[in-house]
Amino acid sequence: MDTDSIHPLSSDSEKPLSGITFLDSICSSADNAEALRILYNSDGMWPSNKDNGSNPLTFSPTEKSLRDFLDEKVSSPADKDAPADISCPAHAQYLTSEYRSLAIFLLAITFFQLCGSPWVKEPFQAECLSLCVTDDQPNGQWRLHAPCDLVPDTGISDPADSVAALGVLILELDAGYKASWSPDDESRSGKRSHQMRLRRLLREWEGDIIDENKRIARSCLDFDNLVGSLPDYDLPQGMKVPAIIYKYVLEPVLRHNIERSEEFQNVFAAIFGQDDTLPLFRNIVLPERVCAFDARDRPLCQDSLYRSKKFFNDADAFIQCIEEIRGNSDCPTSKGNGKKRIVLLDSGVDREHKVIRRAIGSKRINEQESKSFTSAPWNQDDSMHGTAVAELTMRVAPIAEIIIGKICQGRENPNNTVLAEETQAIDWATNTVKADIICLSLGYRVAHDAADTAVDNAIKAGVLVIAAASNSGILERRARPACLDGVICLHAANGYGCVSEMNPGKLVDETNFSTLGDGVHVLQKGEFELKAGTSYAAPIAAGFIACILSFIEAKVPGLQALQVEKLRRKKGMEAVLKKMSAKDLHGYDFIHPKYMCNWKDSDAVQRAVDRVKKALRDV
């Protein structure tokens, strides 16, 4: 039978041979009167006449290469966003930004479905994909087609180069430009390399690509390293590749575009028909991923190290002033011994770390009350995240008492138990430890009633709860628990107050505080390393807040009960923090004690007392 004139409709088998369920196919051609229905999964492909329950659409397609719909880089940027008009020749049209985002969305899902498949021989490239424009639909029924050969390819392909080709395609669709090849894109053997091409485009198109797609493209470029560093979760070797594609490509694309579902509703209907023919997109549910923390390493750049050290050096006068004030004051706190109690709920601390060992010996870290809510002891920290958090807290709050609550053993939490452990730990910190401050350098997107209630109860008990905003950039909102009512949310900036690109978008009706968290130096294995993340800004802010509480108790006597209560609430403490912060060019309030007064000048310190009183009166 001559199949050249037959449009095959490929779709997943309802009974996969391998037992692995894949998403419905979205890369197939449309049905026509002679359609050949093909079922496929990771193990094979076979014909079937069984109806899948949908009502296939019929139309006369006109196909052009996807590359024909992309603009030349030298053209006006306005051209690439011109609205498509299907009455004109297909090759003359440039895709709107909406359709380009949709194409990235569809291709990411398709690539995840077909990665490692023997049926796709060529990497996804704009010139190898076709775009079908219908002539009989006034609203434009656009479909992307990927060629699938019915003869499997048993040759060995390079998945890293195929993933890099996808990264190039994402950049092309984001920018709306065609990506050319350069002699620099050839390997020593003279073969064209998608990896070298992607590396060049990331450099040359820096200003044309949104941050989220830049991150995805960099992950595509770093594919081999990501596969090699994947923790062993008993995954078969064949599943590691799709696992990385899912985590670093598909999931970010889904998260970005699922929020645009209303925008895409008409587009989906135009492409796939009515809702009852589109089970794929109606049933997409993002996984409820619980991530304990999401910090990053920075290269040990001397400029960044200098900025970090200067930040802490500039705070020394404030810290020394607080130490002297507390040393000359017998004023107890409402919680007991005169020291502010900061509970750090994180991955524990490493007892062998130089700073931690010294802090335990001097009782700055309360060894008796610290506790683990996991199977590992509180003074063991394989990830070193909690150790860095504790080091930073003690650096800016030398007179505070630190209590460690270990609620996780690493960044990922595959069993999603960290929320139950966090709930127990917050209740413990509130009711048993009697914390002044709880610092949560973690974030998650999953709603959890018990954890939310524990946070709320802590706030009602007069505990100040500090949490990291998120490290996912402006395409994500504040994570939990930072987004909860009553929680003081912290964003990350460098030592000069410039906010990091990892912060979520600034909120209009909220105070947006930042402090050092991007390029902050910590001691690791005897040497300084630079870290980045809102989870490092949170403990620095917590330490400053502990110092401010001590300062107010010692220097602002006679506060009324209502004023004391305000100070123990988000609104009151934020009013005081406003007095020790400066607004940056982006509208974030960068916290640093030097903005309150010259702490070396006793007269200036008295003026700071007056400013605190006024802040509490105005709340």
From TrEMBL:
Keywords carried by this UniProt record: Hydrolase, Protease, Serine protease
Keyword Hydrolase annotated: yes
GO BP annotations listed: proteolysis
Domain DUF7580: 25-252
Molecular function terms from GO: serine-type endopeptidase activity
Pfam family for this entry, one: DUF7580
Statement: the UniProt record of this protein carries the keyword Protease: yes
Active site: 346, 385, 535
Source organism, top-level taxon: Eukaryota
Peptidase S8/S53 domain ranges (all copies): 342-559
Annotated family: Belongs to the peptidase S8 family.
Protein name per Swiss-Prot or TrEMBL: Peptidase S8/S53 domain-containing protein
Source taxonomy: Eukaryota, Fungi, Dikarya, Ascomycota, Pezizomycotina
